[in-house]
Amino acid sequence: MANVTVIGGQWGDEGKGKIVDWLSSRADVVARFQGGHNAGHTLVVGDQVYKLSLLPSGIVRGTLSVIGNGVVLDPWALQAEVEKLGAQGVSITPETLQIADTCPLILPFHRDLDALREDASGAGKIGTTRRGIGPAYEDKVGRRAIRVCDLAHLDELGPQLDRLCAHHDALRAGFGEPPVDRAALTAELRQIADFVLQFARPVWLTLNDAKARGRRILFEGAQGVLLDVDHGTYPFVTSSNTIAGTAAGGTGLGPSAAGFVLGIVKAYTTRVGSGPFPTELDDAIGQRLGERGHEFGTVTGRKRRCGWFDAVLVRQSCAVSGVTGIALTKLDVLDGLDEIRICIGYRLRGQKMDHFPAHAADQAAVEPVYETVAGWSESTAGARSWAQLPAQAIKYIRRVEELIRTPVALVSTSPEREDTILVRDPFSD
Ligand code: GDP
Ligand code: IMO
Ligand code: MG
Fold it and tell me: What residue's CA is closest to ligand 1, atom 6?
């Protein structure tokens, strides 16, 4: 298979950025296909730490990076990220970055609406990143969005803006907010247009050319399958499809382009934001996982909730996303635990269940059934070969593979790029 599609197998923050960066040395193109700057992907290369939200992680190595049509693009966030990376020595030019001319834009009032809704929801809030992701996708599906290509036609934007603002003015009035200032918005768009347009391309064409020439395309998913708007813990999800199937539609390639689907899976579980989490730990072990794993959100700095590995959820994620193999990350965070628990099933009001139910009340009510396995006292941190892993750690990995019915292709043992064990090469599989 020439291509690899990387997706998150849990609730995001599984270490996708690290793995995409590692794999991008073998790729010719890296492409994002959904989400926006709600993502936070961390790359550690020597003493440099790169935090990417909107830009594909391949950009750090100078690999051609593409933002596909499935992404919602905040032009000002793009500019800020390009400048931030520039200050870290990563030069971003139209030779290294292409953005689909059909990407819908995230505008300032999308961000406002996201925050207004969250603030009005009290305990029922989703805990979004407040980046305007949901409202921007709503406008895309509602056929009201302003897209990248519109930036080259700002003089003709009037009727489109009227339609979009009429919708938002009504929503804003409901929150006691003034109407959108169209003149100010148009002026802001005029100021940023050329910056965005220098990168704008029909990226479907670039990618289909690359495919025809046998180039290797690496698709970089954001978020995780459990945050997928169809397959996740609805309504506590993001507003895009995060499964591997989106790689094709979100870039303009056919469904066979996905290639090897690599699910990135943390050796335990974390979640940031609200919603059900059957294996969540509110005790000292949960605290320990959070501290050892530095579980704080890359985008919002929020503390991530931590818990045991949930094999039922990951098995379901692998199934709905057609995962070929997984990268098991943060194994080192489990070092030194006497015992490790794995969720192997649920009980729902006394009934056994081997999948996650659809209804939010049932999702909140399931009780995990655990299997306990022995931990290991040795350190796995920084291991770069299978031979460097303690026997119990290998046993844990093998048990995970068995329970999720998917083989391990990579193991990650620290944030550092090279602290990665290759079991099965996704690019030559
Ligand atoms: P992403 O959103 O999936 O790209 O993941 P994030 O970057 O938000 O969160 C993963 C965090 O774990 C980052 O701080 C990474 O540097 C770090 N990380 C990735 N792999 C490993 C690993 O194997 N071990 C440890 N200890 N940290 C890791
Ligand atoms: P990466 O790519 C973890 C979560 C938010 C919230 C829900 C909806 O770094 O793995 P949104 O702003 O998308 O409308 O928020 O989704 N969320 C993430 N959680 N990692 C992410 O991205 C996330 N992107 C969104 O916390 O619960
Ligand atoms: Mg993240």
Answer: 13
